[in-house]
């Protein structure tokens, strides 16, 4: 696994709309390009802040989180009709092989990245399925987000994804965050 898991007591902070400074709804939808017939997963969905932005544009959104306290917060807030909460770790997903058209994570890759999780994502995504990663960068300014020592660089993420068989479509380093869009391997 990656670095330490987000403290559920801080869940309300994830609902702060100022987070769109780092990754906006528009940007996420542009990167993911969701379609009405798609099944997608939000990896480490937390309170559903970004899941809510994607949910209206897909058939099914699996909101996956390893901490049930986060799902409880999301359920109290109100889960959209197209969202199914899934209590699981990214290294052992209760989803069928080739069941996802796409998956995304925001501010979470540094918590779940491992060989096991990336192999599991390669399994559940359809061949060529899109994986969008937006996360805090190890070369960031540290104006916000976790300590630099708990982050990956864009280069780390690209190497890890390539080692897991993914093809990199976009790899963009910014001041505080990086964006990586990859396609799942063929089988
Ligand atoms: C920093 S929060 C971000 C939540 C959400 N992506 C957002 O941007 O609002 C990270 C979330 O990932 C979850 N998480 C961490 N490691 C995970 C793993 N291996 N599998 C599934 N969820 C994980 C945590 O429980 C937490 O809810």
UniProtKB/TrEMBL annotation:
UniProt keyword Transferase present: yes
Enzyme Commission number(s): 2.1.1.-
Keywords in alphabetical order: Methyltransferase, S-adenosyl-L-methionine, Transferase
GO BP terms: methylation
Any one GO molecular function term: S-adenosylmethionine-dependent methyltransferase activity
InterPro entries given in the database record: Methyltransf_11, Methyltransf_Superfamily, SAM-dependent_MTases_sf, UbiE/COQ5_MeTrFase_CS
Stretches assigned to the Methyltransferase type domain: 42-132
Protein name per its UniProtKB record: S-adenosylmethionine-dependent methyltransferase
Organism: Natrialba magadii (strain ATCC 43099 / DSM 3394 / CCM 3739 / CIP 104546 / IAM 13178 / JCM 8861 / NBRC 102185 / NCIMB 2190 / MS3) (Natronobacterium magadii)
């Amino acid at each position: 696994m990656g670095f330490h898991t987000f403290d559920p007591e801080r869940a309300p902070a994830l609902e702060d709309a100022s987070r769109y400074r780092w990754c906006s709804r528009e940007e996420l939808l542009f990167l993911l390009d969701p379609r009405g017939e798609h099944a997608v997963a939000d990896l480490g969905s937390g309170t559903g802040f970004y899941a809510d932005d994607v949910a209206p544009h897909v058939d099914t959104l699996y909101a996956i989180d390893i901490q049930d306290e986060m799902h409880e917060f999301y359920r109290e807030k109100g889960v959209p009709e197209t969202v199914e909460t899934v209590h699981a770790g990214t290294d052992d997903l209760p989803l069928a092989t080739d069941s996802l058209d796409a998956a995304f994570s925001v501010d979470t890759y540094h918590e779940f990245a491992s060989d096991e999780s990336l192999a599991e994502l390669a399994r559940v995504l359809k061949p060529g399925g899109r994986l969008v990663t937006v996360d805090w960068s190890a070369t960031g300014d540290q104006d916000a987000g976790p300590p630099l020592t708990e982050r990956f660089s864009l280069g780390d993420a690209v190497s890890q994804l390539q080692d897991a068989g993914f093809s990199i479509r976009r790899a963009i380093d910014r001041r505080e965050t990086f964006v990586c869009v990859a396609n799942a391997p063929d089988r």
